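Render this sequence as a predicted structure.
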Amino acid sequence: MIKPAKPLPAKKRPAAPAPEGLRLSKHVAALVNCSRREAEQIIEGGWVRVNGQVVEEPMARVLDQSVVVDPQANPMALAEVTLLLHKPPGFDAMAPLGAANKRVKPAQTLLQSATHWAQDESGERVLKRHFAKLTAAVPLETAASGLVVFTQDWRVLRKLTEDAALIEHEFVVEVQGEVSPEALHRMNTPPGSERDTLPPVKVSINSTGESCTRLRFAVKGAHPGLAAYLCERAGLQIVSLKRLRIGRVTLAHLPEGQWRYLAAHERF
């Protein structure tokens, strides 16, 4: 009787090589005599340099590199930030990063270290964590430019949503040709049938050029499409639309396509 052959033993997979070095958070915890969680906060706060370069990942590993912790390091200083962007036309202010495609360009893609305004006076250090978990707070037409807000701070988000109808927005709208007193009156005074549906708007002439007129719009709340509707009803063709202000926070001299931090003293 022929005995069946014994199955060959399964080949053992080679063990994965152990990661080299010590986790940076463990190294920092030992270096400054703090807890692992405090060490992670110090690293995420941009207070740690490895061979002279800032490293913000607690999971990074170090062997014999030079690790230096800034004497000013504060594990409790991981404040939530708010970023103010001068959105160019063509970018969607509210689209999430995952919605990017040939037709949709999320304005949030412009929030990078390279586009941080060099004259930002907030004193904040740009960190990788500042670009995570951002919420677009106030809508703006895709074709428009101007001030948009992205925030990590629940207090800012609550202010801009719960008090949205009370916060004034200021726009400058450039239209073709001259604007007659009748057209200006028509934009400021909607017909009776629309007074219950349209928000009160203050429209004034900002400046007049050879071929265009710049109008100033002030309205409480964000109402995408409102300026275009009022201009069309008055027989005016829009050339450009830019939001200059949300509440007490202004676009000021922030260049198009760049962003800055909301300063500690600024309030919407």
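Summary. Residues 230 and 252 are 26 Å apart (CA to CA). The domain at 168-246 is CATH 3.30.70.1560 (Alpha-Beta Plaits).
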